[in-house]
Write the structure tokens for this entry.
Amino acid sequence: MPHRSFSQLSSYAQCSEQYRLERLYKTPDTPAAWTALGSAFHRTYEIWEHAGRSSDLAVDFTYYYDKEIQELIRKQPDFSYWDKTPNVKSVEQDIKLRREHGIKQTLAYAEHALKSPWRIHKYPELGGTITLGDIDIRWTADVCLEWPDGQLTVRDIKTGNKGNVKSNLQLGIYKLGLQENFGIEVTQGEFWFTKDGTSGGYDNLSRYTRSYIEDLFSSLERGIQAKVFLPNPGSHCKFCGVKPYCRELGVIGNVPTSR
């Protein structure tokens, strides 16, 4: 039985050539400090919540961020192959700035959490597997918020740009996962953006039914099994980690298509 996820569905829908390179050929991603920031933020926040909101956020973030960076350097020690923020002069400077920004974002989100009227429902990083037809879908929601009136909101925390969010489908999948794996009924969801500490707004998730999500993943599976992989150039290519190997835009060399 195949195992799928929202990230696979999103990757395939945006550019199935990217999916082919990332998922089938395991082509190495272009390293970037922003990926370390995202991973370190989520790990630090999870620890903080589990520790009763008493852990040292700055120390923990620095530890996990530097650990992620060292792993990226191990995989690709040549910084000329790294991505960086366009207006930053060097990868080394980008790594330093992302560390500073990450600490600020982590501290700011913790302050927001402490001042907010909601509490964490169960625990952060709720996740599991739901089976739709003959496909297993893995999911992990950052946090489920419980408000004073008992209403629940599933929240996904984004450390990247707002423009990277195209729809609320990700939240809809989390809604279904919370319902099927934990018996938690959620009617609304939101994205929270740590760069400016704002919400993307609350969305009614009722349209994300089991049949709709099953149909989407069935379509994904049919495309993969039929080996339908099409380059789809666009603004998203700017931050594509496997762009150097793309058949349309690559500069390193194309990965064969026989697989």
The chain has a mean pLDDT of 94. The chain has three domains: 1-27+229-259, 31-115, 119-208.
